[in-house]
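testing teh design pipeline on a random one, pls ignore if ur not involved
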């Protein structure tokens, strides 16, 4: 029986595939019959069918890279990955999401439809891709917003957007512009979030601001630059009571993704102490889980700061 080139040259399958992922049409070009492909992709066979016309040359589950390659082969040569998978490959930590499909962008004129673990969006605004390890991704700003448009809750959207900004890869103004260009579909929550985080650096800071406004004497300022008597920079507290030089910092390694950030936090607290500023430091989780206790600590610190002479420091608001 004539079995085709693939039977005599098994390494040819490896060479014509990528990460063991191959198109069924390529297998047919090598002389394999459709019945053979189907039989080898049965539950007890050595291969898997990942998507229509896309075969995995192994029976074990695909890796993340193999899923990405399969999706790109299925969608076509101009497709690129966006959304959650693109954000992950750009280096962001993601909130827990219920949808594990790969979101891909395709030129508007293409006709390939969503299938299996692949969600395809046709667009007339296909950006220049960023290629990471051979995988074409949308730029991070587009990837983040494509993902946030599909998340129906504020909290994970804020967490994702703030991390992208903190990492220095996204600028709020650019994100707002991308939202405007992309239309209003699914944009209500990301618009709301971007309006709230113009001067906020973490989800916890947003909650902390709301909490501090419940105090008998709320903060006078948020995120002002504080200097000592000699004009040396001390820090930029999340909340600041200027008449008594009290600072509230919501800080944790959870929200400082690099070790250098943590070292800078320690140095900043040393400067606070040297200047005589009373500082309340709060873990982000406590603001959410123990708001009344945090509020009591702030009130106690306020009374302690009120009882001592105010140190000679000054706060300067940044220009809007």
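output:
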């Amino acid at each position: 029986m004539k079995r085709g080139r693939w039977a005599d040259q098994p390494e040819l399958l490896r060479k014509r595939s990528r990460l063991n992922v191959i198109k069924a049409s390529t297998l047919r070009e090598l002389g394999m019959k459709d019945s053979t492909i189907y039989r080898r992709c049965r539950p007890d066979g050595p291969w898997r069918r990942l998507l229509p016309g896309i075969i995995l040359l192994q029976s074990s589950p695909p890796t993340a890279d193999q899923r990405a390659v399969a999706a790109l082969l299925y969608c076509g040569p101009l497709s690129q990955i966006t959304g959650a998978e693109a954000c992950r490959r750009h280096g962001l930590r993601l909130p827990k999401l219920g949808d594990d499909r790969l979101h891909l962008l395709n030129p508007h004129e293409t006709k390939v439809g969503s299938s299996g673990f692949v969600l395809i969006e046709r667009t007339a605004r296909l950006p220049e891709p960023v290629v990471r390890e051979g995988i074409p991704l949308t730029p991070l700003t587009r990837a983040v917003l494509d993902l946030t448009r599909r998340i129906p809750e504020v909290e994970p959207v804020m967490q994702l957007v703030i991390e992208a900004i903190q990492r220095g890869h996204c600028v709020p103004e650019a994100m707002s512009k991308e939202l405007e260009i992309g239309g209003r579909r699914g944009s209500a929550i990301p618009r709301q979030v971007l309006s709230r985080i113009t001067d906020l650096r973490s989800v916890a800071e947003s909650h902390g601001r709301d909490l501090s406004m419940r105090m008998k004497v709320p903060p006078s300022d948020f995120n002002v630059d504080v200097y000592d008597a000699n004009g040396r920079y001390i820090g930029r507290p999340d909340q600041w009571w200027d008449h008594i030089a009290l600072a509230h910092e919501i800080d944790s390694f959870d929200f400082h993704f690099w070790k250098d950030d943590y070292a800078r936090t320690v140095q900043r607290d040393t400067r606070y102490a040297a200047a005589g500023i009373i500082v309340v430091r709060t873990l982000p989780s406590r603001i959410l889980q123990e708001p009344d206790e945090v509020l009591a600590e702030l009130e106690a610190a306020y009374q302690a700061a009120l009882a001592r002479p105010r140190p000679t420091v000054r706060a300067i608001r940044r220009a809007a």
